[in-house]
Every structure is written in structure tokens, then in C-alpha cells.
Amino acid sequence: xxxxxxxxxxxxxxxxxxxxxxxxxxxxxxxxxxxxxxxxxxxxxxxxxxxxxxxxxxxxxxxxxxxxxxxxxxxxxxxxxxxxxxxxxxxxxxxxxxxxxxxxxxxxxxxxxxxxxxxxxxxxxxxxxxxxxxxxxxxxxxxxxxxxxxxxxxxxxxxxxxxxxx
Length: 166
What we know:
Layout: H1 2-9, E1 15-18, H2 23-31, E2 36-39, H3 44-58, E3 69-72, E4 75-78, E5 83-86, E6 89-90, H4 95-106, E7 112-113, H5 114-122, H6 130-144, E8 154-157, E9 161-164
Helix pairs in contact: 4-5, 4-6
């Protein structure tokens, strides 16, 4: 359960250390999102080597030479540099607006439910509700839409959620 919750919002490496040695337990642990599964007893050398291997895969030492850029309809979102251009002008977003726009752009054309967006952006914070999401969408529209009252980029799918038009 914890592994799944972490995987929803992060790609941080996860290593499970457990006494459960059955094949089904190992397979389940890896399918839930663990990067490695270590069964007791184990040596410190083995654990150290496995941690280093997982970290090498998760955080390569070479600097990424190309920026990841999401583009659509006059919007350029440079993930690596954390920069947003809308119709050629730089736009500043709050962290939540950034996360929302990134999820919408990565899923362009797909309807994303309000619950999914709340979960991906706010996680398991029980104080957040659909009204909070709607307000953040409105603020985001004010920053990226020519006419926020008649949006053409972030569309509402009544009774379901939102989608970024393709």
C-alpha cells in the first residue's frame, strides 16, 4: 500500500527488505513498484551493492543533454528548466498549477477525472476537495488562455473532469 502511494507521486527508488521469501511475495513487491526486493538474511555488502545499483539506474551520473519539452497549441513547457512559454511569452505558475498543467499536457486529449487530478497533485491530503481543484484550474486558465471565460486549451468535461484539447 505504501509503495503504491509513493509511486503515484514520485519515482524515488524503493527497495523492499523483508523476511517473506516466497516467489509470489517477491513478484508482488516488484509489481507494486519496488525497484528491488531483498530477502532476509542478507549481508551488508549485498545491500550496499544493491542500493548503489538502484541509485545508478535512478540517477545517472551524466547530465541530460536534451531538455524535456511538452508542446501544444502555443504552449511550451520545458520540464528540465521549469519554464513555461505561452504564445511566446514567459508565464510563471505556482507549484500546484505547474503540476496540473504538466499532467494535463502529458495526457493531451484524454479526460482526467477530478479525483485522479486531486490524487496526483495533492496526494492523500484529505482536506482537498473538488472545489480546490476547480479554483486552481480557473487560475491556470487565467494564465494560459486568451479568453479564460471561453477556454480552448483546458476543457471541462461536465460531471467527469478536465482535458487538455489536442
